[in-house]
Amino acid sequence: MPDSTPAKTPRVRFAPSPTGFLHVGSARTFILNWLYARHNHGTMVLRLDDTDVERNTEASVQSIFEGLRWLGLSWDEEYKQSERLDLHRQKAEDLFAKGLAYRDFTPAHSGDDEKSSAQGAWLSNPGMRELSREESDRRAAAGEPFALRYRVPRGEGRTLRFVDSVYGAQSKLADEVEDFALLRSDGMPTYHLASCVDDADLRISHIVRGQDHLTNTFKHLLIFEALESEPPQFAHLPLLVAPDGAKLSKRKHGPVVSVTTYRDAGFLPQAFVNFLCLLGWSPKDDREFLSLDELTAAFTLEGVNRANAVINFTEEDPFDPKAVWLNAEHIRALPVDELSRSIKPFWEQAGFHPLPEKLLAVTPLIRERIKLLRDAVSAADFFFLEELAPYDPAELIPKNGDAALACRVLQHAQAVLATTTFDHDSLDQALRAAALHLGLKAGQAFQPIRVAVCGRKNAPPLFETMVVLGRELCLARIRKAEENLQSLI
RNA sequence: GGCGCUAUCGUCUAGGGGUUAGGACGUGAGAUUCUCAAUCUUAAAACCCGGGUUCAAUUCCCGGUAGCGCUACCA
Q1: Could you say which of A172, A247, A250, A322 is catalytic?
Q2: Rounded to whole angstroms, how far apart are CA atoms A159 and A65?
Q3: CB A444 within 8 A of CB A383
Q4: What is d(CA A186, CA A51) in angstroms, rounded to the nearest whole number?
Q5: Contact, A179 vs A153, CB < 8 A?
Q6: Residues A201, A224: contact at Cβ < 8 Å?
Q7: Is the minimum distance from the CB of A239 to strand B below 7 Å?
């Protein structure tokens, strides 16, 4: 079991390419790498794979770091591929010198050249693979641009093999692998070259990455061999796909696949992490709600599933219902002070700047009523608003009652509240007594008061709410409600 | 097209040669409560198809189908 007892303390890496925001698939890869490292007391390396100058942006680098920082999972070492170009080029040089690679002077083409692929020319670039060293040197010296390609062994019937920690034994005929590029004609290394050179140089022991690289691994095996380096242990993760089954993409699916979208909507990072882990991995028992520590303790590569996982979202609702549910669970699991600290920025963004004590008093009243932190704004606005937003006075009328009844309730409530101590038990006794006095059921009597005080039917428990609001505000709002009611009598 | 990978409720998954195929989200019904929420109970809901192997296959093997991935001088 390579998982439970690794031969050496593992060194794993997360290697995003900065071509856009951090998306959920990348975040999941990062998280599982992190869990693997921490579970096995290994080292987590962050490496920016930025060899595609055309598509890389600094904004993207920032956005990726922003996303990772929000997740709250730290790494131990950090590298940037663009700062290691000399090493990549030198290794490419070595491979060429050893005859393991050749120069391809064919101009770059766009890839939709179906004729050549149909004929098998894609495999070995006829005319270029066989170019004599003299001819190749002559053309290179003349300044003709070229890409450097790996000379994949042909006609030997060789089978490339590796054992994937998730997908098991894998094999492919070397003759089926095309002569892939190592260096572009501008001298920049390709992903395959840079990635393997760095993985070898950084002594990465386990590569945990998306399944979209499963087939590429055969190329990587060849590169490690050429580098005379023992290949790391590979573990491929099933892909996260959209409801239509397509691989998640920034272009096609937009902000719903961006980690910052979850953050801004008020997901707790621990809930987000919990959710992502459950996509393609399971602790093999019935647990769904897991803390970071529990995830770390439970995580093994054996628990990783092999089928792609659908992450549910629609235009209207960008968040998977299970993610939302887990977030609600994590919200309820958080101590009040921590929760209120998490909610605070959302309230502030809405223009509410409550005192810390009030914040702490309101938080427990809404924590079971919100699923996303941003819900706290609409759930608690009436605590912070001096003037209640206009509401339909008809809401004040309880079931089986009329405006006159509601009015009587509010009048009596004012009289009672003027003298009642504003704590939970006193209010409870006083208002229940009031209901009895009016010959009403508690529910009937409380509705007018609740609507008067909160401005709506659905709100946190009445007595707790009134305690937080205080006598003065409650009385003022009830008085106002009574006025509003006059139009309906 | 070639090559590779995958297939259990709508979704995430557990399981595994003989099970009432388990859990969760979501959905429906009910209970409880001052409303809402939370909580509890409960219902509906799945082994892609066809062949083998076997006393017995959803599970193992083969084929098909479907989906996904790779097939770029992207990563």
Answers
A1: A250
A2: 40
A3: no
A4: 11
A5: no
A6: no
A7: yes
Q: Is A250 a catalytic residue?
A: yes
Closest by CA position to A309, among listed A24, A91, A107, A14:
A24
Instruction: State both tokens at A245.
Output: 């089954």
Task: Write down all domains in chain A, each with its CATH number in brackets.
Answer: 11-78+196-240 (3.40.50.620), 86-183 (3.90.800.10), 250-331 (1.10.1160.10), 334-384 (1.10.8), 393-486 (1.10.10.350)
Backbone angles phi, psi at A331, to 5 degrees: -60, -45
A411-444 pLDDT, tens per residue?
999 999 999 999 999 999 999 999 999 999 898 8
Beta-carbon neighbour count of residue A375 at 10 Å? 19
Residue nearest to nucleotide B1 (CA to C1'): A118
Q: Give the separation between CA A299 and CA A36, rounded to whole angstroms.
A: 7
**Quick one: CA torsion of A357, A362, A365, A368, rounded to 10 degrees?**
-110
| Residue A475 predicted with pLDDT over 50 | yes
Q: Is the CB of A482 under 7 A from strand B?
A: no
A203 by DSSP, 3-state: which?
A: coil
Helix axes A85-97 and A191-201, enclosed angle (nearest 10):
100
pLDDT, residue A109, reads 67
Give me the percent of chain A exceeding a pLDDT of 70.
Answer: 95
C1’ B7 / CA A236, Å: 18
The pLDDT value given to residue A1: 36
Q: What is the pLDDT of residue A262?
A: 97
Using DSSP bridges, classify how beta strands A168-173 and A159-164 pair: parallel, antiparallel or unpaired.
Answer: antiparallel
Radius of gyration of chain A (CA): 32
Q: How many CA atoms lie within 13 A of A478 on its CB side?
A: 26
The Cα–Cα gap between A100 and A92 comes to 9
Closest nucleotide C1' to the C-alpha of A110: B72
